[in-house]
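Students often ask why we bother predicting the structure of a whole assembly rather than each chain alone. The short answer is interfaces. A chain on its own may look different once its partners are present, and contacts between molecules only exist in the joint model. In this exercise we take two input lines together and write out one structure for the complete complex. Read the inputs first and try to guess which parts will touch.
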Amino acid sequence: MSQTLLARTTAADRGPRLSSAKRAETAATVLLLALLIVAPTFVSRSTVNDLGQAVCLGLFAISFNLLFKYSGLLSFGHAAFFGFAAYAEALLLQSWPGLPLPLLVVGTVLSTAILGLLLGQVCVRRSGAYFSMTTLTIGAFFYAVAFKWQGVTGGTDGLDSFMPQNLLLLPRWSLDNPGTAQTYWLILAILIPAALAAWALLEWTPWGNAVVAVRSNEKRAAFLGYDTHGVKLANFVLSAALAGVAGALWAIDNGFVSTDSVDLSFSTTVIIVALLGGSGWFWGPMVGAVIYIAVSDRLSALTPHWQIFLGLAFVGIVLFAPRGLAGLVQSIWQRVLTRRGRQNV
Amino acid sequence: MTHAFASLLVAGALDTLTFWSLSFMIAAGLTVVFGMLGFLNAAHTAFYMLAGYAAYAIVRHTGSFWLALALAPVIVALIGVAVERLLFTRLYRASHASQLLLTIGLAYIIAEGAKIIWGDSAFTVAPPPILAGRFSLLGATLPIYHLFIISVALVLLCVISVLLVGTRLGMVVRAAAVYPEMVGALGFKVRTIYTLVFAVGLFLAACAGVVMAPLAGVYPGMADDALVQSFIIVVAGGLGSLPGAFIVAGLLGVVQGFGSVFFSSYAIFFPFIVLGGVLLVRPHGLFGGRAA
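Now the answer. The structure tokens for the assembled complex follow.
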């Protein structure tokens, strides 16, 4: 009791006090990222490979949730951006094998962001069901392109044998062996700053408040002088860019791109990943991705029809746990806090 | 004008009408249920697929396509009603996001369930012998089965229009679409009317699933293919607008029917071009005036 009081006074002295929820959230964020970073030292190599997949899927799910949580827009075609980035990176590398990794990622992400700007003009004009259906058709369109344009995308065979050779600052490192801790850490070195930047932007700046204001009452935000269309469009572009980072890193981790990365079921997979972890917390989708990869690996070994569990998960989450795992943990945590509060009184 | 060109035109026209009939039968229920109930059912085409598989199973066990056409849509509509009563009614007042998520989950369950029962492979269903032949018109020899599909769609449309416009029940349904509270206050069970509309929508899609089976076969991905197409029709037509869906299905029929005659390798892109074109001219869809 005296300890908590002390902590409060010192926090107050440092400046504006953070709410206890915000502090708990930050602590959970730090814990999660630390766990992700040190994980390869504890687990087997095949698990490291799975972890690489999971963090890329997790960033992708975070990018989806950027629209869902902060703008209230449910995208059903988000794999279009992920897949576009993965293909774009493979094609860039096939043309310029010596392209340095940072430049490669920046180029891929920029082109995905530009794509997001173009498509966002159409999508963001309407919200609700229209948005979902428009994004679904865009996703289907990109799948059709990847499937049909065999000369460029390789059709159903996909593209392989591309790997960035020029790592610039890390001359001794190599990406030739996917699934190693080196590849994993290299991916995290790009992934974590990108995700942290988005987190900081939306959770800790006035910009984030503006995005949420437009979501909760678009008319009121417009009366306050916000360009609501512009705010939504900007968030859409940010989401596309982040999906681009995820796709680019995923392609590096896999060394292989196929139509699986743009198809519609991947767009729905990322939704279930985000909701499983909990769409109410920025990092919830990352937790969801780790769980999803772990569980789907075991289930798919058990039965070829494991996707039926995906369907059950959708139904179960919507009916019984709309806030996902993060929501469950949060409500338990709050119950503990209130009980402790009562004891103190 | 050469003879060959005329026969190409005839073939294109028949394809157009066939495609129009099928895609409108599938999309009609989706858009009407959205218009009346504000409910977006992403599992709609999963029921269409289920009807295809049911038709396959019935034809395999009894050998009768006609029995399949009579039974499968009814079975599917009944399953749909059960699902609507058990699951969907909880979400009529929820956000579109929750509705989409729940129904996408349901679509997954139906698709995987179908795979568990019938496996991953595609099946063909033979059309009844009387419809299996071809007829010739203006130098083109065309499958009779296409004419059958078109007439099924026409008959269903006529029956439903007559019911809607000419009967007391139809009047109540039309009233419930616009003033549900008032219709409820007058003592009608609005909930039952909703369920009825839902069932008729699924019945139409299921009929499409059955008549589609001899045309394109029954396969695991047919629900997804039809879902994208129906979404395009519903969005371009204006969410909830039946005339809009009818016109866009016709537009898609034209590009699909004639386009695949002349530029067959790009046929997969036509629906997207139509959607893009319509949304450029009318961002809310052809008949989508109201906020949705």
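Check your guess against this: Chain B has eleven helices and two strands.
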